[in-house]
Design brief:
With 471 residues, this protein is an alpha/beta fold. 32% of the residues lie in helices and 22% in strands. It is built from 17 helices and 23 strands. Strands 10-11-9-12-8-13-15-16-23 form a nine-stranded mixed β-sheet, sandwiched between helices. It has a six-stranded mixed β-sheet with strand order 3-4-2-1-5-7, with helices on both faces. The radius of gyration is 22 Å and the shape is globular. The N and C termini lie far apart (62 Å). 52% of the residues are buried.
Length: 471
């Protein structure tokens, strides 16, 4: 067997050699809760995909634990076959999300052919149990409506007089050791932690609602700290990943604009099968036949789940700045990339506000934006808010500026959940398109919350506003 990529201080004669396939999120969590302190395993490497500039770094010793004094290397997923053969890898663990079932199995075939077993961890083996009730929000795909549902549930819980802390699925794109456990209570915290656009999109709406947010890398440590100031933990899932914590109420979003995806993507199908409640979102934008098809599919996968329908109404802050004008629409990046959508709330809002034309920014794309269009041609026609780092933010700004200076763009409609003017400037009016959750038949989620929360918590706050529609 060749020399290991990692160095251990005291190793058994044989340790099962593991590679973890990831995207700077679940991979780190699975390592932390399954492998970190187990001397019978040796994590040889993580691989990276989906997120730019992750490979070439190391999972730091402070997070990797005493068995890994030099940390663990992170390499590109494209090196997988060579890595398995060169390092004598015994087991490859798949640990990222929002990919087709065929994608997972093609990776499995590569590993099997190279001589390694292939493993998917179950939710039961990777979820941490909290001392507080946990309401988890997950989905079948990226871009289906988790964010507005999480906000809706947060308002509902706050109306009960409960202290609500949101814990967001990881987005650790910077210094991993420094990001081990992060707490966000103010916009100043976002600046202090050098948050990317991707992080701000998820954190800012919670802060606006008065909800403290935790995120980072070490999710057991994060949970224990959050529990100190929470009556209820709200798990705000990323992509279509499984919850990191054992939920008392598991709410899963399904998308009638992408019917069939609830059975085609990993681990979204598992979420549906595990769900207590499935919310079919965007019913106001979808065909009735597609809503009905998704509902039938969900009921076949999980007959015990409560199935609810909801609209996702979009409003534009200043329609007069959009009406009759040629606009560029900025949409949430992951929704367009691995989410496979061609548009989002921004386009819906621009059309409703009477935009004369939605300008295709592709001819003006700069740097990483041009690279995104090359990799994800479905994103052309709108502008993905690819904000994983300062360079991408500059490219986003430069793309808009080029279109404005060419006389093609008179205004910008932003469908991202944040105020983009906090991180970039453009020489044209920028108008936000906002979206919320609206139950078709109000009260379904309130009933689910009442059933899930312990009577001791509900009784302790019986003087607060009763759980209602959170409208």
């Amino acid at each position: 067997m060749s020399t290991s990529l990692t160095s251990t201080s005291t190793a058994p004669v044989h340790r099962t050699r593991v590679v973890i396939l990831g995207a700077a999120g679940r991979d780190f969590h699975d390592f932390n809760v399954v492998f970190r302190d187990d001397p019978t395993y040796e994590a040889v490497a993580f691989t990276a995909t989906q997120i730019p500039d992750i490979e070439g770094r190391r999972y730091p010793p402070d997070l990797a634990g005493s068995l890994y004094p030099q940390g663990i290397p992170i390499v590109a997923e494209s090196e997988l076959t060579d890595l398995v053969e060169r390092e004598g890898v015994d087991v490859v663990v798949f640990a990222y999300s929002d990919v087709r079932h065929e994608h997972v199995m093609h990776l499995a075939e590569r590993c099997v052919a190279a001589g390694a077993d292939f493993r998917l961890h179950s939710a039961r083996h990777t979820m941490v149990r909290s001392t507080r009730p946990v309401v988890a929000v997950t989905a079948v795909r990226t871009g289906v409506g988790k964010s507005q549902t999480t906000r809706y549930l947060a308002r509902m819980l706050l109306d009960l007089g409960l202290r609500v802390v949101a814990i967001r699925h990881p987005m650790p794109y910077g210094d991993l050791a420094a990001q081990a456990c992060q707490r966000f209570a103010t916009y100043a915290d976002l600046d202090r932690h050098d948050c990317t656009i991707e992080e701000r999109e998820e954190y800012e709406p919670h802060l606006d609602a008065g909800v403290v947010v935790y995120a980072g890398v070490d999710y057991e440590r994060i949970l224990r700290e959050a529990e100190q100031e929470a009556d209820v933990i709200l798990w705000d899932g990323g992509n279509n990943d499984l919850p990191f914590y054992v939920p008392d109420l598991h709410v899963v979003l399904a998308d009638p604009l992408r019917p069939g995806d609830e059975t085609a993507y990993h681990p979204g199908e598992a979420n549906v099968r595990m769900a207590d409640v499935v919310v079919i979102a965007k019913c106001d934008s979808a065909r009735t036949a597609d809503v009905e098809a998704v509902e039938a599919s969900v009921r076949a996968l999980n007959p015990r789940a409560t199935v609810l329908r909801a609209d996702s109404p979009v409003t534009v802050d200043d329609p007069s700045a959009v009406e009759g004008r040629r606009v560029i629409v900025v949409e949430d990046g992951p929704t367009l990339t691995h989410g496979s959508m061609t548009y989002g709330a921004g386009v819906v809002g621009a059309r409703a506000a009477g935009a004369a034309q939605i300008v295709d920014p592709t001819p003006y794309a700069v740097g990483s934006i041009a690279a995104t269009y090359a990799k994800y041609p479905n994103a052309r026609g709108v502008l993905p808010a690819m904000g994983y780092g300062a360079d991408q933010v500059r490219d986003l700004e430069a793309t808009i500026r080029a279109a404005v200076e060419a006389g093609e763009c008179e205004a910008v409609v932003s469908g991202t959940p944040i105020d983009l003017t906090r991180v970039l400037s453009v020489p044209a009016p920028l108008v936000r398109a906002r979206y919320e959750l609206r139950e078709v038949v109000p009260g379904g989620l309130a009933a689910a919350v009442r059933s899930a929360l312990p009577l001791s918590i509900l009784g302790a706050h019986s003087g607060a506003t009763s759980v209602g529609s959170a409208s």
